[in-house]
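pasting input
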Amino acid sequence: MNSVSISLEGHAYEVLVGAGASASAGDLTAGRDRVAVLADQRVVALHGPLLKAAPTLEVLAGESLKTLEGLGRVLEFCATSGLSRGSVLAAYGGGTVGDLGGLAAALYKRGIAVLQVPTTLLAQVDASVGGKTAINLASGKNLAGSFHHPAAVLCDTRLLETLDDAELRSGLGEVIKTAIIGGEEALELVERRLDRLCQRDPAALAEVVEVCVRVKARIVAADPEERGSRRVLNLGHTFAHAIELAAGFGRVPHGVAVAVGLSLAARAAERSSGAPAALTARTLRALDRAGLPSSLADLREAYSLQGELSPQALLHGLRHDKKGVVGAPEFVLARREGDVIMGVHLDENLLTDLLG
Amino acid sequence: MNSVSISLEGHAYEVLVGAGASASAGDLTAGRDRVAVLADQRVVALHGPLLKAAPTLEVLAGESLKTLEGLGRVLEFCATSGLSRGSVLAAYGGGTVGDLGGLAAALYKRGIAVLQVPTTLLAQVDASVGGKTAINLASGKNLAGSFHHPAAVLCDTRLLETLDDAELRSGLGEVIKTAIIGGEEALELVERRLDRLCQRDPAALAEVVEVCVRVKARIVAADPEERGSRRVLNLGHTFAHAIELAAGFGRVPHGVAVAVGLSLAARAAERSSGAPAALTARTLRALDRAGLPSSLADLREAYSLQGELSPQALLHGLRHDKKGVVGAPEFVLARREGDVIMGVHLDENLLTDLLG
């Protein structure tokens, strides 16, 4: 028997953050033979044609976009637009558009460049950075995807000024999560800027998006394909996914589910892992100030989901979380600001108590 | 405006070649939490259950497998088999099964390990090494895929003993291509072993598969994502793809189309790039001895494709090759044994002459 070895290599890219960052799209794509645009139709309606003379596929953003059929549509669009391996697909929109555009770019001719232009706060601080792309399967959410790092990410904070309140709040859920993971300095900044963020203050948005991108970039660089340490970014997400699954996907915005997940993770960390009560209080206060629910009771009330979010339904959802083995959900918890532990199993009694 | 940088890394793997290599599958998958098998149903029929107790999805090999629907089927199979990111999908079959299994593994939970167990000569010497995976789109063949390097490749030359003549010959087309690219030593070895290869001599098969894998591994390691030098592996393929397109996909086996492509590339190299007549003669003689067509006339006759493979139809096919820009096909030609040039544009008169 004989054996032959094969070795491979890497990639680096930039995230531009600031008011007007999306204006760099022209320069960034100038060296490419062709450009095509995938865009949320609401973004086109608000901001007009996005890239001069580039063929544009407008889509209705949302989870229903993230199917094999939706993927096929974008792939055929790349082909009919005559894209080569030297071309670029620019994706303008929130997380679902970025996920779909990123995956299509990952696959078309085995990988072309994608320029991510996230237009929601949630996508700017979380979804667009780190190269995760995915579609949903019948068997579950985000089960098929790839790590396809973009050629560049343009976080244009001016695009956030037209966000509706619900989208802004949803994004603040991920902002608060990222700040807790980032540590004292990041969390203090977010706390100081929270009121101005809620008012869409451009300077505050630019400052906070940049801090969140820096926190995420540091974590992603250490573990680009989420084999271990990158999972700290799932703080609050085991609970959040169970909430989304139990409510029916699309009923509760992701960032809102994350907010409640953060409140539950804080209480769980306090009771299981010695986290101080002050961190729980700090987490809940930030969520309140951001206009986000900070308990399951708040969420059930705000979304009229008393039956759907029963403790039994949530326990079922937890047992089917895609991050953990079926039957033994794993949690990511913060013991202190910037000190996050992974792979935590919670006692049944504690869980039942938290979900009550 | 602020900018944040992100850096990434690599991967290495082994190709085991020899009689009985597939018996290592058990050891190689022992450390994984779960294993599932995607297999050509003919392989299961010939060799029985492939991996004890592993759930197995049997498929009918062929290009018709390589669709978004086929991909969805394998992805849902991974989910219902309970595969996690620590699991492995083992793909047993020829190039189409390896392509589909590799792509499903690339996408399932954003990438799980794939163990490639190629069961045809063509897949052992070419398709299974190098991480290329793909499905076809309505717009063209292999237009959606990824570079997903396997955890390991097991080239069990014993599996080749049950290959039918057509499959063996098709594989010999890629063997001869690889030998010309590899250089004098590889080509001489293939010439010396050709009669024994045609008789499925186990030692000759093991020796030649290993040489081909070494040639391919060297080229792939230098350019894993086919940005430049890896394209030398497309020797003869611009013509071959035009033949497959004009004939209707599936009518002419890939390796047979490559054989005729090699004969046309040899003649083109002689007339456009100063290749010696001796190399053309050597190429044609090897193809003849392998029982492969060494001219378009032979191919048209053998497959009754006079009309389909008219010069006009082939010219049209060349202008739509996915490797080059529409309207200006690019060729890979051998000037000498082991000296291959890329990006060659051929004069219209020469092309018309070659395709006559």
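fyi Confidence is low (pLDDT under 50) at residues 3-9 of chain B.
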